[in-house]
Amino acid sequence: MILRLNIEAFSVQPETRAALLQAAGDSRLSRSHFAVHDGGAAAAIDYFGKNPTPHVILIQETASDQELMQNLENLANVVEPGVKVVVVFANEANTRLL
To answer: What is the distance between the terminal CA atoms of the chain, rounded to a whole angstrom?
Structure first.
């Protein structure tokens, strides 16, 4: 199955960026637009304040839980309803998927 999605990803770690770029090259996404940007939620907020909303936003974040929730609220103010957001939380102590 070949998907047609617009995916915008924001990563703060080089390892995550490399994994996202590898995923973008998967043949099942050959008809999709998959862009990888540097930065976390703050970069996504800035980017989508000026650009159209994709189908999926993937954000890697290092902020605290409270800061992350505030950033997600701010992101919700600049994207269209219905967008899917995936957050990968990463810091020195742990990495988890929210």
So the answer is: 27
> What six digits make up the tokens of 29?
């996404």
Please, what is the average pLDDT of the chain? 89
70: amino acid identity, one letter? Q
Query: Nearest to residue 58, comparing CAs of 83, 26, 29, 91?
Result: 83
In 3D, which of 37, 57, 89 has the Cα closest to residue 97? 89
Q: Which of 25, 42, 44, 43 is nearest to 34 (CA)?
A: 25
Question: What is d(CA 29, CA 36) in angstroms, rounded to the nearest whole number?
Answer: 14
pLDDT, tens digit, for every residue of 39-63?
999 999 999 999 999 999 999 988 8
Q: What is the pTM of this model?
A: 0.86
- Do residues 12 and 62 touch, judged by C-beta distance below 8 A? yes
